[in-house]
Task: structure prediction
Amino acid sequence: MNFKLSEEHEMLRKMVRDFARKEVEPTAADRDEEERFDMNIFNKMAELGLTGIPWPEEYGGIGSDYLAYVIAVEELSRVCASTGVTLSAHTSLAGWPVYKFGTEEQKQKYLKPMALGEKIGGYGLTEPGSGSDAGGMRTNARLEGDHYILNGSKIFITNGGIADFYIVFAVTDPTNSKSTSAFIVEKDFPGFSVGKKERKLGIRSSPTTEIIFEQCIVPKENLLGQVGEGFKVAMMTLDGGRNGIAAQAVGIAQGALDAAVAYAKEREQFGKPIAAQQGISFKLADMATSIEAARLLTYQAAWLESQGLPYGKESAMSKLFAGDTAMKVTTEAVQVFGGYGYTKDYPVERFMRDAKITQIYEGTQEIQRLVISRMLTK
Ligand code: CAA
Result:
């Protein structure tokens, strides 16, 4: 067993870390305040090849693996969790299902420009009445000649409004609401529109919107996978997506720890740095230990996927553990900063707000437990 990252992975980490520090961190607080997505940052990620890390070169990617991808999401999230999830949703939720289930034509048309960062992808599963119970969706699609007509709406869509196309799930058998199919829906298809933009507690520079289908015309060739296979496509996509969120959570927690350690070394009370006082030093030790455990789970799940081994349970575990770690560590980081941590003068309050979503999206922590326990007992 070898826990040392390869030179390739270390180089990628350093490259993303430098980029994140120079190009992402300086505006992170302002973008959060203004709820502003910055297309320039996405374009620069594309120039560095970050938008296509795990995809083969023939599809515009850099031909690396899922471990490299989670390292990139982690390093971005260490300074800006919004940038981390933009890349995560683009790669795991939109790129992955096209790579896995797409025809050669669909890969050339959709995966390649996504990998090159010329187009942005999104994923539409959740509906107003169907969150954790993803199988209860109402959005439907009926075949009419050479196209499908979609009606319904999806909510809480990461990259909503900035994506060029979305992987959308809809009921295709009116007699069986469980029989769903996946579609690639372009933003310019007739009947497609972007609805309400959410105002959020955290990840505020990552746009989250509703997407609406009103007699939306989707060409037959934009069916992704087989008719009736949609739920499987959605679930398998989330198996990997969840590990991207685990990486985001690890990055958020690490960013909060970095800030807390630096502050604790500088801040003096009772005649010495608070880092030299056990109440704080033990806190830092616990934070670092939890982060390391979360990181190992995340890297393990990514490694399993890269090796072609089963990773669904491990990915649910990494998201569960890393999400809780991010919430705990960021809350403690605010505590280390005391009153200053509660202000916008320091980044830890943003990290704490950003951490919360990692316990909710791509399956709540309760759903992760359900997935893990079902796999243990099946
Ligand atoms: N891989 C392959 N197939 C799977 C699967 C998986 N991981 N999980 C389920 N399936 C298959 C089952 O084998 C079953 O197939 P058969 O009918 O052929 O037997 C079928 O799917 C139905 O499975 P279940 O009976 O387990 O379905 P369920 O209704 O009990 O639901 C669930 C399972 C795990 C609770 C699921 O609904 C779920 O994951 N819910 C959470 C939804 C979620 O994570 N939403 C996140 C939205 S995306 C998001 O958040 C993005 C963002 O903003 C960044």
Remarks:
- The chain is about 50% helix and 15% strand.
